[in-house]
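WARN retry 2 of 3 for item q-0093 after timeout on previous attempt; input resubmitted unchanged.
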Amino acid sequence: MAGRLEDKVIVVLGASDERSMGAATAIRCHEEGAKLVLAARRLDKVKAIADSIAAVAIGCDITDEQQLAALADAAISHYGKLDGAINFAGIETSSPIADVSCEVLQENCDVHLIGTTLFIKHMTSRMTGGGSVVTTSSQTALLAPPGLAAYAGTKSGADHIVRIAAVEYGAQNIRINSLAPGFTPSAMTEGFLALPAIKQAFINEIPLGKLPSTDDIANAALWLLSDESFMTGRILDISGGQTLRRIPSATEMGF
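OK item q-0093 returned
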């Protein structure tokens, strides 16, 4: 039986750590028959994951437009086409608006807003037979957590660009969507989860009673990248229902 992504060529940006959503998604796509190009800023890190699943490894910084163009070109040069692309690149910053610096705001804009837009621009430009582009938002973009104006604000801005892109690229049979993970144990959140109070505080706000996993995110990404998905311009919430409630307070998290 053919896999759900059999012979599709997929780019995954942000797959430099085996504990990451990007790595989990790459492995899941490989299991379903995809031909993969994996990318991250650290080529040595992404190469180890790529080698384990017979994928192509490329160094790519999402804030560099030439590198994004080269990433899309790599799919064409290695496999002759590009069917899907997913962006997991992101940075973690936190600051109340009263203390936020211009530098932090600009860094978040460069990665989450400008980078996402240019990722869509260059990946779609190589999709001559239709396809799917997926970006990564956050449940913080669907709620209003204090201290995350730069992070959540730029993620939310990128979500609206996803809606606009869906309208612009629909006639080319290219779907543009975004994933909004909840608080997911991964390389990026490992430090936070070292404090037991944080994990329990989040679980208390999740109707399904557990944190999402990188496999949960990978399965959602797989569906969006596959032809099974007839959806575009939407933000897919993978939080176990936490966005029906709220982000726990700093006191509840033990700060």
